[in-house]
Amino acid sequence: MRLVIRKDFEAVSYHVAKYVKERIKEFAPTATKPFVLGLPTGSSPVGVYRNLVKFHQAGELSFQHIITFNMDEYVGLPRDHPESYHSFMWSNLFKHVDILPENVHILDGNATDLDLECQRYEEKIAAVGGIELFLGGIGPDGHIAFNEPGSSLNSRTRVKTLAYDTIVANARFFDNDITKVPNLALTVGVATVMDAREVCIIITGAHKALALAKCIEEGVNHMWTVSAIQLHPRGMVVCDEDATLELHVKTVNYFKSIEKVHEQLIGSDNVGLQGGVRSWRGGAESTYHQ
Amino acid sequence: MQYPVALQLHNFISAPSSPEPSTPLPENTAKVIKITNCRVLKDRKIVEKDAIWIQDGKIIDPHKFFWYQKRLPDVVLDAEGLLVVPGFIEAQINGAFGVDFSVPSDQETYDRGLMKVSRGLLKYGTTSYCPTIVSSSAAVYHQVLPLLKPRPGSSDSGASILGAHVEGPFINEARVGAHELKVLQASANNGFQDFKNVYGFEGDTPEAQRKLSEENLHSVKIITCAPELDGVMESIPDLVKAGITVSVGHSMANTLQAEKAVSQGATFITHLFNAMPQFHHRDPGVIGLLGSRLDLPRPYYGLICDGIHVHPNSVKIAYDSHPEGVILVTDAMSAMGLSPGNYQLGNMDVTKEKDRVVIEGTNTLAGSVITLDACMRNFIQFTSCSLIEALEAVTLHPAVLLGIQDSKGVIKPGADADLVFLSDDLYVKRVFVAGQEVDLGTIHV
């Protein structure tokens, strides 16, 4: 797993957005070989979306051959409610870019058969060949998507009851009235996310520091569901300095030193997107992964 | 709107019934136009780098379009960063391009004149207007009003017609302005019936009466009258009930009378400062309505903003005292829009200069020839108001006055797609009427 530490929220947002852009550029998607992207909502990815829109407006990134799958959606909330995840994705990303509406997938919280909707969602992901890169954030309780503490680490897309903590945290979007917050949601499972060929988690802010520490320095644990990333062959966490506050100094130093090695000895332009070294002492091309 | 309250866990068995369909709505396959890269006057704010979606001649909600119709727009136009605002609404205009609305003629000639003005006004950003008839005899009204029924606009036929503004004849001869004295009505002692008789709301037989009253009534959108005349004050509630906007103008009313007119239902002041007594500090008259402390909202007021009919300082004083009430009007006459030169308009010989018109051989103004976009630019200069305030004075305010703010004067889903694209210095660059772009180059008047 890579832990990339950046100065603050803005720097993290820029890094992740640039990574996504470069990853897509490297992939070179076409109509027959689209880039399948998994997307989160919430406060963590807002900066990433802002930067992606800027790249698009500067002509550096097209969404024409990109298929997206969002992580979750509230149950029972009208699609055009300002707090629905449909609305969030529309105003933060889709309305500014050239993505095709039929390539956008968000769980339908108003489906008459919710279980069938979840099943269909998994089938749609499989039908496009699986997710190439899944972006995500975490909650203060270390949950990924709406996989609250106690969720099976092998879970798939399903209906979830939201934890009291989550409902309280979300009340700020519903006139601070917790009776107005939906208490059910459709969410991709932990395994659904980890099935993606690459996972990139954005963790910013001091209030996420404990969760980050639990997920990286302690074991894989269903009480901190994002810890499942430890078992992913290509996992990456991008965080800001504040989020490292509960990590051991040794952990932080280790991950920072890897990047320093890259820059000083190898040169930042000689580092592949996954952190592998492109070439060594001018010799044959080879990639080393840490 | 009530949003679903969180469910009790033990009540949850299957999906809750929701207020919206989960199956897609019926397909609307009509062409969708997206105008990107614009600054938009939306919800009383200017939104940068925004876009406008249009279908079936109306603004649509792109959110619904994306999620339910799952289509991309058929046509994408680039506004190139221009400011896009609702089409302007003109509440008082007597004619233009050589056409005079108060001169009756056969329907074909009259319609041709109307279309000339409807098309020509688009150049100045006006996409809806109330053709204004000066005080006339009953015979003239009976002939002309049936020809001024409201009709929608289009990129070919020009601006939409909202109905007639009949300025008079129930006005005070002491403030007759440029109207003819002999056609004025000194009183309305039979109340609403007198109005109906003069304007031709009723015919001879009961059937003709009913038909005419329905048809003709809808032609009249605004009536300017002097509330101090006998019978007029009492008629105001009936006029308002008939769907007419009542405006105080060409009047000698004192402040008490003017305020009574407002409590009777008058909501507009016709060209404030003009054709009314000057401001007197102990009896401010109609102008005093701007300082009214009635429980009712203060009325809107029209301002001819050419800098000539009203001194720029007076414009600023009015604006400072009641900024939400300002509606800019041109009160333009038939020479508006004509190139400089000598013309015979009706029984008048006039000389049109670049932005004023005088009686030939004299320096006497023969009326106003200002355009509405120029009024707006002048208004900002005279008052230092914000851009949004100046724009609302020609869009939102007249729309609210006339009760049409759901379809005109605003950019919001459901409203008519009448749009004006303005350069940074507020000149009209592009115009859309009912969702279709107007080829301004083909408008020759």
UniProtKB/TrEMBL annotation, chain A:
Work out whether the entry's keyword set contains Hydrolase: yes
Gene3D superfamilies tied to this protein: 3.40.50.1360
For this record, the Gene Ontology CC terms, alphabetical, are: cytosol
Q: Tell me one GO molecular function of this protein.
A: isomerase activity
Q: Which UniProt keywords apply?
A: Carbohydrate metabolism, Hydrolase, Isomerase
Which top class of enzyme applies to this chain? hydrolase
Q: What is its EC number?
A: 3.5.99.6
> Which Gene Ontology BP terms does the record give?
carbohydrate metabolic process; glucosamine catabolic process; N-acetylglucosamine catabolic process; N-acetylneuraminate catabolic process
Domain (Glucosamine/galactosamine-6-phosphate isomerase) spans 10-230
Name the chemical reaction catalysed here: alpha-D-glucosamine 6-phosphate + H2O = beta-D-fructose 6-phosphate + NH4(+)
A family per Pfam = Glucosamine_iso
Does the record's keyword annotation contain Hydrolase?
yes
Q: Which residues form a coiled coil?
A: none
Instruction: Return the similarity comment.
Output: Belongs to the glucosamine/galactosamine-6-phosphate isomerase family.
Described by its record, this protein's role is as follows:
Catalyzes the reversible conversion of alpha-D-glucosamine 6-phosphate (GlcN-6P) into beta-D-fructose 6-phosphate (Fru-6P) and ammonium ion, a regulatory reaction step in de novo uridine diphosphate-N-acetyl-alpha-D-glucosamine (UDP-GlcNAc) biosynthesis via hexosamine pathway.
Spell out the protein name for this chain. Glucosamine-6-phosphate isomerase
Task: Please give the organism.
Answer: Linnemannia schmuckeri
User: What gene is it encoded by?
Assistant: GNPDA1_2
UniProtKB/TrEMBL annotation, chain B:
Q: Where does Zn(2+) bind?
A: E167, H250, H271
Q: Which residue positions are annotated as catalytic?
A: D331
Known catalysed reaction(s)?
N-acetyl-D-glucosamine 6-phosphate + H2O = D-glucosamine 6-phosphate + acetate
Question: GO molecular-function annotation terms?
Answer: metal ion binding; N-acetylglucosamine-6-phosphate deacetylase activity
The free-text note explaining how the cofactor binds reads:
Binds 1 divalent metal cation per subunit.
Q: Which UniProt keywords apply?
A: Carbohydrate metabolism, Hydrolase, Metal-binding
Q: What is its EC number?
A: 3.5.1.25
Signal peptide location in the record?
none
Choose any GO biological process term that the UniProt entry carries and state it. Answer: N-acetylglucosamine catabolic process
Location of the Amidohydrolase-related domain? 83-438
Binding-site positions, substrate = A178, N274, A275, R282, H309, L365, A366, G367
Q: Which family does it belong to?
A: Belongs to the metallo-dependent hydrolases superfamily. NagA family.
Q: What is this protein called?
A: N-acetylglucosamine-6-phosphate deacetylase
